[in-house]
User: What shape does this take?
Amino acid sequence: MDVVRMLLMLWGAVTVVLIVALIYRSTLATREEDQIFLDPAEDSMANEQRAIVAKIEKLSRPIMALWVLSGGLLAVIAGVWVWRGFQNF
Assistant: This one.
């Protein structure tokens, strides 16, 4: 199989995982409240909001890593494509 084709498949897989992670973070963010007024009896709602915020923060590093990996793979694909173009020129 061609190297460029394999790199494109790898880039596609990484990008799909990135999109899924972004969608998941977005669905979590829709359940997050910006401001909550609670009395002491509603601690469970505050705990739920803390858990949502923790999940969103936990996703930030993998999402950033996937962005970098996707961009890096795209740059490598472009470099290989240009290099092959100069080889055939």
Remarks:
- The chain has two helices and no strands.
- Residues 43-88 form the longest helix (46 residues).
- Helices lie at 3-31, 43-88.
- The chain has one domain: 3-88.
